[in-house]
Amino acid sequence: MTTATKFTLARVLLIPVFLVCMYLAEAYGTVMQYVALAVFAIASLTDLIDGKIARRYNQVTDLGKFLDPLADKVLVIAAMAMFCEWGAFPAWALMIVLTREFAVTGLRLIAAGKGRVIAAGWSGKVKTAVTMAGMCLMLFFNTTVFADLLGVCFIETLNWVIVGLISVTTLYSGVEYFIKNFDVLKEKKG
Questions:
Q1: What one-character DSSP code corresponds to residue 58?
Q2: pTM to 2 decimals?
Q3: Residue 151: what are its φ and ψ, rounded to 5°?
Q4: pLDDT at residue 189 above 70?
Q5: What are residue 88's phi and psi, to 5 degrees?
């Protein structure tokens, strides 16, 4: 197993730890939420590290190609689902993210069946960065401490800005994947 894949597996293993911390934050408050933020941030950083290692040391593997995007999606969706449960992230925005992920995965499967690999595009990387940074900001500011200090209105406005940025970058990258790879969907005649 390559070093890059070990970092990806670490991210996968941190997902249940993150979720446990989020549930404990409901009972024990801000301190556990900041522990959850630390776990999420570390897991997010492993995404940068494993990619750099894989490319620099030629450690790109089929297992890594499968696990890396899966780990990213599950980590981010876990955070969004918790925020949905807490009422800080609307379900419609989570559905935009889920729909885009399923659609792009389906497009990639069709392409793979035709012997073509669809690599991650720049807009997909921007979407991932915006989403992970947005989740970190929500974890940091969505506490009673900041609600008392800055006001609930500020926190709600920040949440909506983050939801908007995530939704726009998600929709843009999804549409871009389909525009650039629309030929994959065309049936061969004859």
A1: T
A2: 0.91
A3: 100, 145
A4: no
A5: -100, -10
